[in-house]
Amino acid sequence: MADYLIRSGAPSDAPFIFSTWLRGYRRSSFARPIPSSVYFSIHHQVIERIFARPSVQVHVACDPTDSDQIFGYIVSEGTQVIHWVYTKMMYRGRGLARALLFEAGVDPAHCTFTHLSEMGPELQARYPHSVYNPYLL
């Protein structure tokens, strides 16, 4: 049996996705200086607007025996835009993010990403032809 299953996102995944995305991006150099009351309220709205787009897709990596047990996810738009990729700490380094990118059809070497996380500089060095464009929000 595989270590994980990748499925399409479901409405029941939204609380987990919002929580991890907001907390993860909070540590970015962009969001750190913003007061928490402003950041969490306004960036929640930003994510809502992203999810409202018909071209946005969500893929979730989960336990193959319990699809509600999420290991990670990707929020992408088409095959060229990555909004957010998340993997739980204990599942990092196992190729999960790479599998999510593959499932979404996104080539990280030639894509645009809208959020520069704290891992952003490392990923930019690994994929120098990718483009950071926060204006696609």
Element layout with pairings:
Elements: E1 5-8, H1 14-26, H2 36-52, E2 56-63, E3 66-77, E4 81-87, H3 96-104, E5 112-113, H4 120-126, E6 131-132
Parallel strand pairs: 4-5, 5-6
Antiparallel strand pairs: 1-2, 2-3, 3-4
Explain what this protein looks like in three dimensions.
The protein has helices at 14-26, 36-52, 96-104, 120-126; strands at residues 5-8, 56-63, 66-77, 81-87, 112-113, 131-132. By secondary structure, the protein is an alpha/beta fold. It has one domain: Aminopeptidase, CATH 3.40.630.30. A six-stranded mixed β-sheet has the order 1-2-3-4-5-6, with helices on both faces. The longest helix is centred in the N-terminal third of the chain and has 17 residues, at 36-52.
Categorize the overall geometry.
globular
Which homologous superfamily in CATH is the superfamily? Gcn5-related N-acetyltransferase (GNAT)
Using DSSP, what is the number of strands? 6
Distance between the termini: 38 Å
Low-confidence spans: none
At CATH level 2, the architecture is: 3-Layer(aba) Sandwich
Major sheet: order of its strands?
Answer: 1-2-3-4-5-6
How many structural domains can be distinguished in the coordinates?
A: 1
Helix content: 25-40%
Strand content: 25-35%
- CATH topological fold name: Aminopeptidase
What would CATH call the class?
Alpha Beta
SSE ordering: EHHEEEHEHE
Instruction: Look at the helices and sheets and give the structural class.
Output: alpha/beta
Write down the Rg: 14 Å
Count of runs of 4 or more consecutive helical residues? 4
Strand count, sense and barrel status of the largest sheet are: 6 strands, mixed
Mean pLDDT: 94
